[in-house]
Amino acid sequence: MSDKVRVGVIGVGGHGENHLKSYTACPDTELTAICDLDEELLAKQAAQYSVGQTFRDFREMLAEAPVDAVSIVLPDHLHRTAAEAAFAAGKHVLLEKPMATTVEDAEAIYRAWKQAGTKLMINWSNRWMPSFAGTKAALDAGELGEPLYIYARLSNTLFVPTKLLSWAANTKLPFWLICHRLDIVRWYAGCEATRVTAVCRSRVLKGMGIDTPDFYQATVEFESGLVANLESCWVLPESLPSVVDSKFQLICTKGYVNVDPVQPSYVKASSGDQGPQLTMGTPLLGEVMGQPWGFVYHALCHFVECVRDDTEPLITGEDGLAVTKILCAIETAAETGQAVEL
What we know:
By secondary structure, the protein is α/β, with parallel strands linked by helices. It has helices at residues 15-25, 39-48, 58-64, 79-88, 103-116, 130-140, 159-164, 173-189, 204-207, 295-309, 317-336; strands at residues 5-10, 29-35, 53-55, 69-72, 92-96, 120-123, 147-156, 193-201, 215-222, 227-233, 244-252, 255-260, 265-270, 277-278, 286-288, 291-293, 340-341.
């Protein structure tokens, strides 16, 4: 490998461009190739981010481009084929969340990763939000005691399934939104889920010809006794001031945490505090003095550091597979009305 980690990006529209911006600024990183079906978009992004090689077929990119690692930023249901091809080519992989939308696909990606012996990081970048990272540090230090109950809401306005995503009917809220908060919950729990119950309803989007549920509500129980109540919808009015609506509350044996990234503010209180401690959140991807900044940027730089230093990413294939199994259990429980034991 050269002095710099050479990176390629598969899928450069929408969130893929955030990967381009981030890699362009990440230390010890060289953005060498990009891939997308849209030729006009490819040309535009290559010029904007000074990328030397462009491809419309990711297999050609993996075979011909000088890349050590790839970001896969494709629609939720298309992750498996690209991930398997990347591992077969011996590449390190940053796979956008979710790992997959079926357990079968997640297990196939997991096997390909293990066989390749390269790095795999699932990009649940919310772990790099100061509020969530700070809470994890407080939990690890014993400041808050043991987690007892979590309420987590992450929702979108109608803009997302009707205008932002052309493939909304090919995914569901557990994979699009709930997975972000479920990853945080499992990270905090430090153990695996044991039981899932859930409900969903289809009315608004189905009436618009988009066959995917409007909302999900799930209760996930963990080995430690922690109970998490997770909810998401994406039929909120577009007139709201933000596309995202979020709320996260953690109740512990010795403390409480409230996170509202949209405000954005962070409130933490424990038995040893004299008063609430407040810190501001960071954007998805903003700029500070002309340079990318935010939790997506820091997550991608972490991946590059792991490839460069041969260390294990914070979020691995084991995490991706475990979370996918819970997400699929939420989908099954909601469809059948029956609890799913894990």
